[in-house]
Amino acid sequence: MTYAKPLLLGTAILLAGCTPSLDDRVSVTRGATFFAENCAACHGSDARGDIGPDLTLLSQRNGGTFPQLDTLATIYGPAYHQSRGTIMPEFGADDLGPLVVVELEDGIGTPVPADLIALSEYLRSVQR
Predict the structure, then answer these.
(1) Shortest CA distance to 104 belongs to which of 53, 67, 79?
(2) d(CA 104, CA 116)
(3) Partner residues linked to 105 by β-bridges
């Protein structure tokens, strides 16, 4: 019985080393990879548009502030797509990683899939 705690602690440390950190999962680099794999075909490899709109102008179109909530809703859900008549795929039906609680509105923690946050951070990073 006295070995149980050290054994559990050692196992937890080993497992922690085998899984990617959550910070890596929501990084701009991860978002850039997700974009290249899922979005570049329509929005261009530089996010400046092709079939889809130029995503480097989101902040400019929103008075100089990156519209994170609107961006997340656009990427995630079919209700938003249908209301705008867009042909963009519904990414919310896919596995977008573990849920991360982020503050999208003042003081309100909202669970959002990690890949979705990473993609949003990448799009924030390419604004002109």
Answers:
(1) 67
(2) 13
(3) 108
Closest to 28 in 3D by CA, of 17, 19, 36, 18? 36
> For residues 101 and 111, is the Cβ–Cβ distance under 8 A?
yes
Taking each helix axis from N to C end, the angle separating 114-125 and 68-76, rounded to the nearest 10 degrees, works out to 130
- Give the pTM: 0.77
When computed from its CA atoms, the radius of gyration of the chain, rounded to whole angstroms, is: 18
Write out residues in the chain with pLDDT < 50, as ranges.
1-19
What pLDDT score was predicted for residue 24? 87
**Tens of pLDDT along 10-36?**
433 333 444 457 788 899 999 999 999
In 3D, which of 115, 85, 79, 81 has the Cα closest to residue 99? 115
Task: Using the structure block, give the residue that is written with the tokens 């085998």.
Answer: 18
